[in-house]
Design goal:
Length: 262
């Protein structure tokens, strides 16, 4: 990943422009949040750019709550620097966790990332993790699962291609998935091993179904990397305790530490 010195962005200007154009082509659709902006990524890309061990997380598409603090009309309240151009888009997304992030979803991932020696948030010295969305960078109302199959297909056809371009530019050492498993299989995935299995609940009783943290090798347009998958439940890894999330992150980090990735 090289800084685009001419345009003062880390991601290529072409990718950022393409994402903006996709939003403008879609914003008149009744299910697209307007005003909004394309969420190419969230997080401190400046720090990520300089790290040896690079991690991204993946959702399906951005929440409509990114564009409101409570239940008021949609706005750019979380993106005060956005001016509908590539530079302000990247700056706004880079600053997301420093302004007023919608923490509910991201806080569910954070303990796992902490175990990986990573974090979304600025108030620590951990490696900075970026968030991306595999189905679409476009925020919708209703949420993705409530869109019709035609609506999903329209956004996914462009969004999945954009996501793969984003990954090719970010070149993560690890992609973290806690969304439906069918998306893992879109990435020429090959299972490496089960890194950790949780058999008991926090209260010590047996889980109905063991929770497996699975490691895969994936290939995206010739770029080979690793992907770790843990089942979601409403939120990322939502059926396991905070301590178990931290432990899973530590187990995952050890895999990469043993192979000198970190």
């Amino acid at each position: 990943m090289k800084l685009d010195y001419n345009n003062k962005t880390i991601l290529s200007r072409g990718l950022l422009e393409k994402s903006l154009q996709h939003y403008h082509d879609s914003k008149s659709l009744e299910y697209v949040v307007n005003p909004s902006l394309p969420i190419v990524f969230f997080g401190d890309i400046s720090s990520y750019h300089n790290q040896n061990f690079k991690v991204i997380t993946v959702g399906k598409n951005p929440s409509n709550r990114e564009f409101q603090l409570y239940s008021e009309r949609y706005s750019y309240i979380r993106f005060p620097k956005f001016n509908d151009d590539p530079i302000s888009l990247e700056t706004s997304l880079n600053d997301y966790f420093k302004v007023q992030p919608y923490r509910r979803w991201f806080d569910s991932f954070e303990p796992f990332l902490n175990g990986l020696n990573g974090s979304y948030y600025p108030e620590n010295n951990l490696n900075k993790v970026l968030h991306t969305d595999i189905c679409s960078p476009i925020s919708t109302d209703p949420t993705w699962s409530l869109l019709s199959s035609n609506q999903q297909s329209y956004l996914f056809n462009k969004g999945f291609k954009l996501w793969k371009e984003i990954v090719l530019e970010l070149k993560p050492n690890l992609i973290v998935f806690s969304i439906p498993k069918r998306y893992v299989h879109l990435l020429n995935s090959k299972k490496v091993e089960t890194l950790h299995t949780i058999t008991h609940k926090k209260d010590g009783t047996l889980r109905t179904k063991p929770y497996d943290l699975e490691l895969y090798e994936v290939e995206i347009h010739g770029f080979n990397t690793y992907l770790v998958y843990g089942e979601s439940k409403n939120t990322p890894m939502g059926s396991v305790s905070t301590q178990d999330k931290i432990l899973m992150g530590e187990k995952c980090f050890k895999f990469f530490e043993d192979r000198n990735f970190t």
